[in-house]
Amino acid sequence: MAKYDNSFTDELRQRLSLVDVISRRVPLTKKGQNYWGCCPFHNEKTPSFSVSEDKGFYHCFGCGEHGDIISFIMKSENMDFKTAIKELADMAGLKMPEFKQKSPEQIAAEENYIKITERTTQIYQDLLYKDSGKHALEYIKNRGFSDEIIKKYRIGYAPKNNIISSTFNNINRDKLLSTGLVRIGDYGPYDFFRDKLMFPIFNAHGQVVAFSGRSLDGSEPKYINTTDTELFHKRQTIFGFNFARESIHRNNRSIIVEGQIDAIQMQNHGFPETVAPLGTALTEDHIAILCKSNRNITFCFDGDNAGQKAAVRACTLVLPFLRDNSDVRFAFVTGGKDPDEILKIGGKEAMDKIINNATPLIDFLWDFVNKNFLINTPGGRTQAEKYLKDCTSKITDKIFQNEIEQEYNSRKFNQWHKWKQQKYTPKIEMPDIDIMTENVIKSIVQTYPELAEKYTEFLMSLNISFDDAQKTDLSIENAEKFIVSLKLQRYLKSLQNEKIELLSNIPENAGDEYRNKLKEIDENIIQANEKLELLLDINK
User: Could you please report the per-residue DSSP string of 6-67?
Assistant: First the structure.
């Protein structure tokens, strides 16, 4: 049974955005580094209620109320601690565990865990500069790592022998096994990491909780990581986040790359806001943690098929976290290179170009659909529309979701139907519409793509280009009236032309058929005029 202790409340704080939770009750506006609003705990007209997402607390400079995400729910909803935790767990999509405080034994076990991982880190660091680690040091320096960087990230070397199991042979075996550093084999304990370049993995507090080891002989897998432990969960851990956290806040974005070495090189070559998932595919937990710090994310992947697939997965994961102020982009490193190589060859300037030219999420998703569905066929367009609908439905901000859907509707209308290529020639030639009417029609199409879809055939018959149009101030009801009235006017004109043509070519043996045709046209003209008068009556 999961323990309802500090680790669970920490996970709630990690997964949930303080700003998102508070803004459900208090309208907030970002000013500088913090968000501001009117305090919910006392009456005020001038906002003095400050919310710091980065620090995880709120403070009212008017009444002095201060607290974190849990205390806000307790005070604003008049709940006790346990009920507030349940409320937040529901928001985070977490199962409510049994309530139980950490025992002294648990606290002692965690302290011992950190002592072992800290001592192990030091051993690996020392060995990197010994003869046994010479090849590992040569490898990492050839990758462009200076002694300063090696020291900062506490990179080390795990030798081929069982140095960790022998070093800690005098402590309780279960304590050592709990760290994932040692396993039990047929001949007793042995080190999990052997002949590996070692990257310590830090928690948010800067403590070493796990390791990632890179092979040095070309064997696969390239990286192996500590298996999940009480203090380390791979799906919830972001490599480099402890170093990047302040920069993510300061630079107003995070950059996600695919590997540890890329993340370290990016951090030390002008992109300190860079992080990487840890030996596993990007997860919803990773996105939740990053969005809590900042909702602006640039994903930087390889340009190959694997990188494209990773980008699509990242796109679907980030959609529920999008807000109207989010800026999510996708950058790709092509030519079989990775960020580490780009930095070596072209330096920060080359990498800047890749990052600055990153594709916004809405364009990336649109491009993906156009490349992967046969949009030149009705079936392909249907599949593409279903895919886009499924994606946009993941956006939890309904107003923003509607805006994205409107944008895609506009693109479908203007691009999938290829207006410029599909010219329609009516049976009876119509006079061109005046420039003012043309501009109104164009603005209606730009603003209301659903009307464009509804009146596709008629709009195509106008033979106008729908590019570079401004949005209209007309309501959707008045916009539709305008289209229908224009359609009726052109229909009337066609009837009148048809009548003139009949009257100018009266056959010598004109009989009932001719008279009935003329009568039918007159009746249609009367009906069309009545509809037009009714439509243009603004009181109806």
Answer: HHHHHHHHHHS-HHHHHHTTS--EEETTEEEE--TTS--SS--EEEETTTTEEEETTT--EE
